[in-house]
Specification:
Appears to play a role in cell sterol metabolism. It may function to protect cells from over-accumulation of cholesterol. With 1281 residues, the chain is an alpha+beta fold. Helix content is 45%, strand content 19%. The protein is built from 49 helices and 47 strands. A three-stranded antiparallel beta sheet has the order 1-3-2, with helices on one face. Strands 4-6-5 form a three-stranded antiparallel beta sheet, with helices on one face. β2 and β3 form a beta hairpin. α14 runs antiparallel to α15. The longest helix is centred in the C-terminal third of the chain and has 33 residues. The chain starts with 8 loop residues before the first helix and ends in a 49-residue tail after the last helix.
């Protein structure tokens, strides 16, 4: 804020009186003559007195010093990360002493190598004595490494040995060799320590003399330190070790604490008798005495007794982690020796003082008999009912008797119980009662059903089997596909079991009479056939209710749609769906129309009217690019004739809107590629330069010369000129050469995948054009480019052709049985050989000839390479075996992968041949109309004896044949089996399914992509908790875990949502609502944010206008309610008072943009309401707030009114004065005794020249607004506006 001082005549007079009281009189000034004027001028204040300058700041040395010290105390010195060290190598120790080659030769190379290796910087210099000084800079570790390298590579090495005891060597090496590395780095030496099996005590040190001494000294220091320590080994009977350690290791711990020595007693499981004591010699000696004393005492005073305890009870005597043995030793001082678990002995030995053995024996027997083992007979199929769902039944028993261990063994008809005797008896009686009850009311049966019908019995998402379970109150176990079992087990109420069995057999019988048919429908049509939310496929299913239609999973990218049901219905449905597909194919024709972007909105029309009309009248689908897209293409889809009609209409709209022209320019087709440029850069630049015209080149290789240009007339002409100029330029600068080669050589010159010709093109820059099939001259090859590039390319091509002309013929022997491999698949192997080895021609003899001679023809080196490769192939074929891999046919398509990609990968990876069987004909497999075979007599039919068919033999349609080397075939079998998909079910609460699926399926898609599986969620109407996961076996565990983790997250979120949904209402009068909301919602937003709740005010039409609803966590909602109630209580305590405030000061009080009024309201915590324009009483102001705040605010406003009213009155009188005529003003001036000179000072800056003080009455010096004034030169410099 800025303050303005107003200088009035009265204040100026007072100012002058204060400055020069003796010179200033009270009456009007009288002009008496020059002397009086001079005195008056002397009485005027000087410019510096009236406007004293600001004092200049001068920095004292003390202040500077003080500041420096203050900073110095605050700034902590930083340690440099780079250090510098200097190393000296005396002349006699230098490796490279050639004084003439300093700075070059081997010595310099070594230094450069050290710098590269360590990252340090080296600088070399020679001392007067020809010694070498090396300055090394860098990080500390880099400098130390560089130092080691310098010593080893630039300094002559000496060696020495130092002998220390063998047992001290390990202390020199240190943990993981760290001590040895540190020692070598520190001393810049190489230290070699003999291996543990070497009896030598000599340590060899190599390095400089100085380093040798340092290393030797350090090693001897380490050895001297170890000499002070001692190690003693005491061998004593294992049976006395427990007395040495004591119960819970108390005795040995006390000894170690008292003596300071470390005592290592081998544990009972280790069969060693040696006790190791380490430490200072005095400590070891003291510990030795204590141990021997205990040993001698126990050996003298203890005796033993042996008792027989059942082997099964030994573990109860030992206790968990041996605690029971320690407990007996602690209480009685007796050691109990248990035979090892792998020993058959049942003898337990007690060792201790005779008077304590009785007590110990009692405790041993008590512990042995405290636990018992029992069993309950129960059929194995009842086990899971005894356990209960998720172990609920068993949990009730184990909670009551936690010490009893209950064990169920799969396949055994008994339950094992183990625990305290009384508890075991109680548990046994409870389980026996449960078994008796279950046997009385439960039954089971098994039926045999072909596995191929299992999934149909289960139904989609388990709908069929779940219905049977619920209706008949039974449990049905259908074996998974991996078991390949026919048996389905039904368990439950006897009557329910029989009814479920009957229903399952009926379903199976019905399915055996059904037919399955596969329809090949391109996957792109699947979504259209299904329709939005399955509406269209529902119509088909309603029309053919007995037919089940299965579409493949989109992830499989399969074209097979499966129909299953009664034969006649399946055929009808098949024809109907084929008709739908035919219509879709007809309607899927697509054409792209380029339309200038600015006309797209006109084609759409107002509210989409134009585009809608075209779509309806032409029966097509028209897609326009997005507004933010750079594309200009409009895509039309439908029947071909309809698409053309729509295209014509759209182009007509564009032609009407702009003067669009289309012309064709003839440019030789050989120039098209060069005119288009790399990635279309050249032609795009022409289109952009010419207002976005469209230039269309014909397809490459078509031989058409016509180039189409479409756009506004002027721009099309401009583009035509530019295109022709560019073509002419390309033609004049371009050079062309022609050479000839036999057509059969062309593919060899081009190479596999165009590799050979690409090399020539890249190396020379020339373009090589080979003749197309339609060209008359099939031998002509054209080379286009610069003259130099063409010559170089021509030379390289001629050399290639010449080498191809140098043809040789050779033969090799290949066993006739392998000939088929080379010529199979239309000679694919031979074609690969020809492509790989320069077009070698390989000729095999006719099959009937029986010859093994194979002829090869081609370039000499190519023939030799091809022969070698063929011999390798023959060796592989010789070692080839055939292996059969049995995998159910239904998995074959999944194993093959999209377009056989998976099987091709296995074939490549393992270098084998894989043959899948033909699909089994479902009609032939189970056709009820076939005539029965005639009876056979004596096992003969037409003179041939038929072998009986093995029912366990795999079906032919399930057998995959693999050929190749044995080890490769075995690995290929494993790879194939690993690709068989497996399905598991995961139990997920039904209410969480929609959250797992996510918005538009995003959640489930993400999981399927992440875990590479297919996840099937049952339909909502099924109300099933089972979610099926299908995929490779090694992916399932991870997918299941991920799904369960997601379930846990959702359950936590669900609980949180429930907690957050707590609601409460508070009654608040509507007049207080705006106050609670606050300005721009500030107060209510603050409450919402602070308490993390949602606060809802009533709508305008709501009946309960006084109800405010709060939603959130209970405690937070209550806190928010209290906060609102506090505001209401405060508002209810407020009062409103009206006061009279002159309307002329309202604007001044309110301030610019209400700043003044806001400041008052914030300061006094009140609300002020000023009257609106046209109010009855314009002076009435309302003040609202607490009584004490209202009174203070009113007082403040009245004070402001009084202050501002003075200014208002003055301004009004001034305005009255300014409205008077000029004569009036002159009279006033005369009355005052002449015009006022204003505020005059002496020695002012403007008085330095001839200029006078500015005249306040002058319109030049003080112009009014808007009056033009001539510019005057001033001592202050030019005026700046």
């Amino acid at each position: 804020m800025s303050s303005v001082a107003v200088l009035t005549q009265e204040s100026f007079n007072e100012h002058r009186n204060g400055l020069m009281p003796e010179q200033v009189g009270g009456g009007p000034a009288v002009v008496a003559g020059p002397s009086v004027v001079g005195e008056e001028e002397d009485a005027l204040p000087t410019y510096k007195d009236a406007f004293p300058p600001l004092p200049e700041k001068a920095m004292t040395p003390e202040a500077t010093q003080e500041t420096t010290n203050a900073w110095a105390n605050k700034i902590r010195p930083l340690k440099s990360s780079v250090i510098t060290q200097v190393f000296h190598v005396p002349l006699e120790e230098r490796k490279y002493k050639d004084l003439n080659q300093f700075g070059e030769g081997d010595q310099a190379k070594v230094c450069v190598d050290i710098m590269h290796k360590t990252g340090a910087h080296l600088e070399l210099s020679l001392a007067k004595d020809q010694g070498l000084s090396i300055m090394v800079s860098g990080k500390p570790d880099a400098v130390m490494k560089a130092r080691k390298e310098i010593v080893s590579r630039l300094q002559t090495q000496a060696s020495a040995t130092v002998a220390i005891p063998k047992e001290h060597h390990r202390f020199v090496i240190g943990k993981n060799g760290e001590k040895l590395q540190e020692l070598e780095l520190k001393t810049a030496t190489k230290i070699q320590i003999p291996r543990p099996e070497d009896p030598s005590t000599q340590i060899k040190i190599s390095g400089t003399k100085e380093g040798l001494e340092k290393a030797r000294h350090e090693i001897l220091l380490i050895s001297a330190e170890q000499d002070k320590r001692a190690v003693e080994r005491v061998s004593m009977d294992k049976v006395f070790h427990p007395f040495i350690t004591g119960a819970y290791s108390k005795v040995v711990s006390e000894m170690m604490q008292e003596t300071g020595a470390r005592i290592n007693v081998p544990p009972p499981s280790v069969n060693k008798t040696e006790i190791v004591i380490t430490g200072e010699k005095e400590q070891v000696a003291l510990a030795m005495v204590r141990i021997k004393k205990i040993y001698d005492d126990k050996k003298k005073n203890t005796t033993t007794i042996a008792v027989e305890v059942k082997k099964s009870q030994h573990k109860y005597v030992i206790g968990p982690k041996g605690n029971t043995l320690q407990e007996i030793l602690d209480r009685t001082g007796v050691s109990v020796e248990i035979p090892p678990s792998d020993s058959s002995s049942e003898t337990v030995i007690l060792r201790g003082e005779p008077d304590r053995l009785g007590q110990a024996l009692t405790e041993v027997y008590a512990k042995a008999n405290s636990y018992t083992v029992s069993s309950v007979t129960a059929p194995s199929w009842l086990h899971r009912f005894i356990i209960g769902k998720k172990g609920q039944n068993l949990a009730k028993i184990t909670q009551q008797m936690p010490k009893v261990h209950i064990e169920f063994t799969e396949g055994e008809e008994k339950i094992t119980l183990e625990g305290p005797t009384k508890d075991v008896q109680m548990v046994q009686s409870q389980i026996e009662a449960i078994v008796t009850d279950l046997i009385s009311r439960m039954d089971y049966t098994e039926i045999s059903v072909d596995p191929k019908f299992h999934r149909h019995l289960i139904g989609k998402g388990g709908v069929n089997i779940n219905r049977i379970k619920e209706v008949h109150k039974v449990t049905v176990r259908i074996p998974p596909d991996s078991e390949k079992s026919n048996l389905i087990r039904i368990e439950g109420d006897p009557q329910g079991v029989q009814e479920a069995k009957k229903e399952l057999l009926e379903l199976t019988s019905r399915m055996e009479n059904e037919r399955t048919k596969d329809l090949i429908i391109e996957q792109r049509f699947h979504r259209a056939i299904i329709g939005q939310k399955g509406e269209k496929i529902k119509e088909v299913r309603d029309k053919f209710p007995e037919v089940i239609i299965n579409f493949p999973d989109p992830a499989q990218k399969s074209d097979i749609v499966q129909l299953r049901g009664p034969r006649t219905e399946v055929e009808k449905c098949s024809k109907f769906m084929q008709k739908i597909v035919a219509e879709m194919v007809e309607n899927s024709f697509s054409v792209s129309v380029p339309i200038f972007k600015q006309f797209h909105r006109n084609i759409i029309g107002k509210g989409g009217a134009n585009i809608k009309k075209i779509r309806e009248e032409t029966n097509t689908k028209i897609d326009l690019p997005a507004e933010n897209s750079n594309s200009e293409m409009i895509i039309i889809t439908g029947k071909k004739a309809n698409c053309e009609a729509a295209r014509v209409r759209i182009l007509a709209i564009q032609k009407e809107l702009a003067n669009i022209s289309e012309i064709e320019v003839s440019i030789p087709s050989k120039l098209h590629i060069s005119l288009i440029g790399s990635k279309g850069r050249l032609v795009r630049s022409i289109m952009e330069e010419c207002g976005g015209v469209h230039i269309h080149f014909p397809t490459e290789g078509s031989g058409i010369d016509k180039v189409t240009i479409r756009g506004p007339v002027e721009e099309v002409e401009k583009a035509k000129q530019q295109l022709l100029a560019l073509a002419e330029e390309k033609q004049t600068k371009s050079h062309t050469a022609e050479l000839r080669a036999k057509p059969e050589y062309h593919k060899f010159l081009i190479g596999k995948g165009g590799g050979n010709i690409r090399k020539v093109r890249d190396s020379t820059g020339a373009r090589i054009i080979f003749p197309t099939v339609d060209d008359q001259d099939q031998e002509l090859i054209t080379v286009v480019g610069t003259e130099e590039a063409v010559k170089e390319a021509q030379r390289e091509l001629e050399e290639l052709i010449k080498s191809l002309d140098n043809v040789v013929e050779d033969t090799m022997s290949v066993d006739p049985k392998h000939h088929r491999y080379f010529v199979a698949r239309r000679g694919q192997v031979l074609r690969d050989l020809a492509d790989e080895y320069g077009g070698v021609m390989v000729s095999f003899p006719r099959t009937a000839s029986g010859s093994d001679k194979v002829s090869l023809k081609g370039a000499k080196e190519c023939v030799e390479a091809a022969k070698k490769r063929m011999q390798e192939i023959v060796e592989d074929l010789e070692a080839q075996v055939t292996v059969e891999c049995v995998i159910a046919q239904k998995f074959h398509r999944s194993i093959m992968g999209p377009k056989g990609s998976r099987i091709q990968q296995i074939t490549r990876d393992h270098n084998v041949q894989i043959k899948f069987p033909d699909r089994e004909d479902p009609q032939a497999a189970a056709s009820p109309t076939e005539a029965p075979a005639p009876p056979q007599e004596n096992g003969e039919a037409n003179g041939e004896v038929k072998e009986p068919v093995d029912p366990n033999a795999p079906k032919k349609c399930d057998v995959i044949v693999i050929s190749g080397r044995k080890e490769r075939c075995e690995s290929a079998v494993e790879a194939l089996k690993a690709l068989v998909p497996v399905t598991i079910e995961v139990e997920v609460p039904f209410e969480l399914h929609r959250y797992i699926i996510g918005q538009k399926g995003s959640g489930i898609r993400k999981m399927m992509d992440e875990f590479e599986v297919n996840i099937q969620v049952p339909a909502p109407e099924q109300q099933s908790d089972k979610i099926a996961i299908t995929g490779l076996f090694n992916h399932l565990d991870r997918a299941k875990e991920g799904l369960l983790d997601r379930v846990k997250e959702l359950q936590v979120e669900q609980e949180d949502r429930a907690l957050r949904s707590f609601k409460l209402t508070i009654t608040v009068e509507p007049k207080y609502h705006p106050k609670i909301i606050g300005r721009k919602g500030a107060i209510i937003t603050n409450i919402r944010t602070e308490h993390d709740v949602n606060i809802q005010f009533p709508e305008k039409n709501d009946e309960n206008q006084d109800q405010i609803t709060i939603t959130g966590y209970e405690h937070k909602a209550i806190a928010a309610r209290d906060a609102i109630q506090a505001i209401v209580d405060e508002l209810e305590e407020m009062i409103s008072e009206d006061m009279t405030l002159d309307s002329r000061v309202h604007a001044r009080i309110i301030g610019a943009r209400g700043k003044g009024i806001r400041k008052i309201m914030d300061e006094f915590k009140v609300d002020l309401r000023f009257p609106q324009n046209g109010a009855a009483d314009p002076n009435l102001v309302t003040v609202t707030g607490r009584p004490e705040h209202v009174d203070e605010a009113i007082d403040h406003l009245l004070n402001l009114e009084e202050e501002y009213m003075g200014d208002v009155t003055e301004n009004e009188s001034k305005m009255t004065y300014m409205r008077q005529s000029g004569g009036g003003a002159g009279a006033s001036d005369d009355h005052r005794g002449g015009p006022s000179k204003g505020f005059v000072v002496r020695e002012a800056p403007w008085a330095a020249g001839s200029e006078k003080a500015p005249d306040m009455s002058s319109s030049e010096d003080f112009p009014s607004f808007g009056a033009p004034v001539a510019t005057k030169t001033s001592p202050w410099g030019p005026k700046r506006f």
